[in-house]
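Quick question, first post here. What does this chain look like in 3D?
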Amino acid sequence: MDIPVNQFKRALLAKQQQVGLWVSLGSRYCAEIVAGSGFDWLVIDTEHAPNDIESVLGQLQSVAAYPVSPVVRPSWNDPVQLKRLLDVGAQTVLIPYVEDADEAARAVAGTRYPPLGHRGAGGVMRASHFGRVGDYARKCESQLCVLVQIESQRGLDNLEKIAAVPGVDGLFIGPADLAASMGHTGDSGHADVQRAIADAVRRILACGKAPGILAMDEEHARRYMKLGTLFTAVGMDVAVLARETARLAALYKP
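> Answer (accepted):
Ran it through. Tokens below.
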């Protein structure tokens, strides 16, 4: 057996725009529902969602039958979390709140076996098809994709240094935390925040790396994509469920 091709990483290298959805319900059943909706990628979130390693595993198994790429976000830049997520089959990881080159290097090192990093070696796990992939430790790096999140003014200030870290494939702008860092908590649409986002996208592209972002409304999403974001999340399963069930209830309430 061989390692599955990381279609998400392949598309980034080809500079193809990919549209995604945040998956936060913590349910393999719900993950399977949205996996068939036509998105290019899904973020299985463990930072702001009630997910653990077992529920992430279940969701990876559920979406595997569909033509969609799962991206897993650990709750922090933690090599132990990364090791466990990679072992259960995550090929693309999204590391939150990276503010400088050292933190970016730490994220990459968590995905690499020694001597390039400090990922713990385990031969019989889902990532290696339970040991059936010959020489997994040497082959896996080509199909791993590391995305780091820029979510603060300090992260913006160090953007070029972060992008220059070997092994960083893309930089994802987190509008909500970035707005809070800039003194506009709860207002990611503020003009100052929007200018900073537009500038960051241009700078990421100039570094030769893939820019990404989460946009909760169509106007912002289309603007970011026009600027050049290559992986754009356009909604969250939780938000869609809350909004649409409220709309349905309102149809029948006096």
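The longest strand covers residues 18-23.
The two ends are 60 Å apart (CA to CA).
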